[in-house]
Amino acid sequence: MTAKEILAELKPLGSESYKRVMFNHGVKEPFFGVKISDLQKIQKRIKKDYQLALDLYETGNYDAMYLAGLIADDAWMTKKDLQRWVVKATHGGLASFTVAWVAAGSSHGWALALEWIESKKALTAEAGWATLRSLVSIKEDAELDLPELKRLLARVRKTIHQAPNDVRSQMNAFVIAAGSHVKPLTETALQIAEKIGPISIDMGNTSCRVPFAPDYIRKAKKRGAIGKKRKSAKC
Fold it and tell me: Where are the domains of the chain?
């Protein structure tokens, strides 16, 4: 299939009611308002298609760009591809999910995450912390640089309250992920989360709430999920 054909398929799947929800979350035109569950049905049919993913992302349509991340063949993604995607991301949903998921599944995730978190562009920095969040959830502990992750956790403690709104959100998510998925870092992440305290994040015109990191890590402990890895960052 071509990107043009996919767009034609997506258009009638959109709804005005869901589009309003997406508007409240800050998504910008152009987009049709397609539910993620409908995008996942197309993903199930296509599975992976590297070139189609690139073409869909280039359309600039949010729904198509999100779908691009779901069908991207992460192993084929180049640094140039991922850099282009992060630059073209128009919303946190693309930066912190689509781009981060695919970057984490590629061979360039760690290097790009460390580069992106230094960016003065909020969406790029957000993508960087989200990529780190994704990496710790899917990579075995032996594959992770634990001393560097400890330094990054300490950095979050010192800088999170001064960071831009959505960057702050992904920093918080990184602390939760590190504490939940990396067993050697659980206590460190929990201590840092306690020192950070509650996070103030503007959720816009939505009912979303800010996760309190210590509670989330303790819940993972209670259900025996500490150290468990995910097969894929994508969902």
Answer: 1-72, 93-235
